[in-house]
Amino acid sequence: MMGFLLPTLKLMVILPGILLAYLPMKGNLRLPPVKLAVAAVLLALLLCSAGGAVSYFSHVGTFCLLFSAAAVMGFFYVHTLKSIWWKSVSVFLSICGVFSCLGNAAIAIDGVSPLSLRGALLWFAMCCLSVLAVWYPATHAVRRLLEDEFFAQTWYVFWIFPILFIGLNLCFIPQKPDILGIGRLRQMYLLLSFAFLLLLLLFYALFYLMASSLNRNDRLRQENLLLSMQQARYDSLRSTIGQIQQARHDMRHHFHILQSFAAQGNWTGLSAYLDEVQGSIPEGDLGLCKNTLVDSVAGHFATLFRERAIPVTFSLDLPPQLPVPESDLCSVLSNLLENAMEAGLKTAPERRRTNVQAHLHSGHMVLLSVENAYDGEVWERGGIFLSSKRPGEGVGLQSVRHTAEKSGGYSRFFYEDGVFTANVILRGGK
Prior knowledge:
By secondary structure, the chain is of the alpha+beta class. 63% of the residues lie in helices and 10% in strands. The chain is built from 14 helices and seven strands.
């Protein structure tokens, strides 16, 4: 009986681990909390029972089973969240790193390797206490960091340190059962285990401060970009209004000259003069959208597209007040238009075109569609569009997908016959 109970109890640490992993992710759950809790607990209990049975009948080491069970729970965890996958993986690995340090501390206190029943209970209790100790920061400070849309690129490398500490803890596990009884090895091992834990927690704290600072700077950069777009749009409107006022002032003079050409029957001169007057008509758009911020973004990109000789049409039927955050819509629109402009620059001039449409649906959803022509290849793997500028997924489309899905919206990207289409639904309150 003990041969089944002991490995099962050792595997039970995945229960407080998965609970701690979900604490900062409350706003990113794909399932209702109750259903998710039931599914997670049942899966964890199933893995623990199966691991205990495998260890009892096949004499497989507990740590091998623990890695397998953690991998299954990690896969379940990542696929039950709407968060960007590397954030979810980083959170899960960070908890595994802490629990591995606590496991070594339990071995040092127990004085036996592998853990006895007392040591397994101690490890489980220490893990549960750690969940209670970090409950508040996990549900407040860490949650705010994870839900921040201006995520720092440091998330790409965060996983290195948890994996490093997990590897170190595995290397320091005593291989001989009674070696900790020699001299002061037990005290040194206990001190080393807690030193690793403190170093790991210090790294987490430093990462939190660094990521928060980077997110704040990125947010300020985005706000400054929107302000610069508004200023550019304002200057463009002032210039266009001035040109229209000048054209209106000269209109009487133009009609007088046209009337003279017509009276003389000088149709060639009339045609030439019309061509000349038509070329002086201002090309600026006075208003692309009733929403001021969206109009600023659209007007800014309309100018960029025109400067790069990329035809673009806007049909933005949006009211001044939107049911979705304006920052979300502007972020999505900017990313899609930037991608469309980059694709247009690589497309033959005669094929260049971009069409942008947006309107409200059911009073609480914004439907956005951006369609552009492209030449070349679209790199896609498993439904993920890869960047043409660096290895990995394209940051722009990734940000669009995350922004849409965080509020229960939807995004779809497809391409056919040299036309790339992005359809996005942003959902607001009903």
